[in-house]
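Risk register update: the risk that structure generation would not scale has been downgraded. Supporting records follow, first protein first.
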Amino acid sequence: MRWKHFAKEIGASEEPIVNLTPLIDVVFVVLISFMLIAPILETESVDLATGGVEKRKETTPLESAPLAIVVKADNTIWMQGQKRSIAELEKELLAQKKLYPQKIPQVIHDKNASFGTYQTVKNTLEKCGFDQMDVILKPG
């Protein structure tokens, strides 16, 4: 009789056992799916220049190059040494796309210029058929 009373006390005071096996299985399935999908995903990345003082190569951008677009600190847009509006820039880029279909345009953007000007230039380039561009940041 004492055993039965002792067994009831132990059974009543113990908490119910939680089965964690299904939770662990789901976590492993999600982990494996991420491991399989991660290499397939295409992510756009931007390689930033190093901030240290290094020996610079002689590959500085030419602001007078046919496909160099300069955005100055006052948000003015210059191409081939002349100030351009967005409409003029679009006409010039369409003409340059016909002359130089393989060239990648360079956007030389002053750090004090607004992001909206950069976005407008980028959208104009895409509208004219350019699918790539080089963004060159001028230190200021």
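Supporting record for the second protein:
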Amino acid sequence: MSKKTLLNSIYSVFLVLTLVITTFLSPEPSWAKRPPEIRNQDDLNISKDMHGQDLSGMEFIKYDLRGIDFSEANLNGAVFNNSKLNNADMHGANLQDSLAYASEFEGTDLSNVNFTNSLLMESTFTNSNIEGADFTDAVLSRIQQKQLCEIAKGTNSNTGISTSYSLGC
């Protein structure tokens, strides 16, 4: 096993354990943290234009964020869990070390996004623009990887990594 593969495995286990710990070992009972089905972005004071904002570490759990402009925003370590980001503008955003579980990125502009070390399981990317997106060490299902490889092109202007290379195409 190569050093890179071992580090990827350790990182994946760390992300899963962090998710389990924060979900099940919370001091509040689990029923107290359940969000409604889909929350409106107004509940979190999100405007339609979040361009260039520092939103690192923010949690967007079951939020309707369709059409929001997150372009060039710092979303490092952000959590998008079961959120709808359809037709959002996220070009040039930093989503390094983020968690986007079962979120919808359908029709979203993800060009030049940095998804390095992100957990993207069960998310959908249908009709999204991923030109220049960097998925280095991102956790994707094999099906997601194949679908993204079919449309992968370009090189990330910040990291210098090509989209197809970062996806392992």
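The helical segments are 3-24, 30-33, 142-151, 163-167. On this basis the risk owner (M.S.) recommends closing the item.
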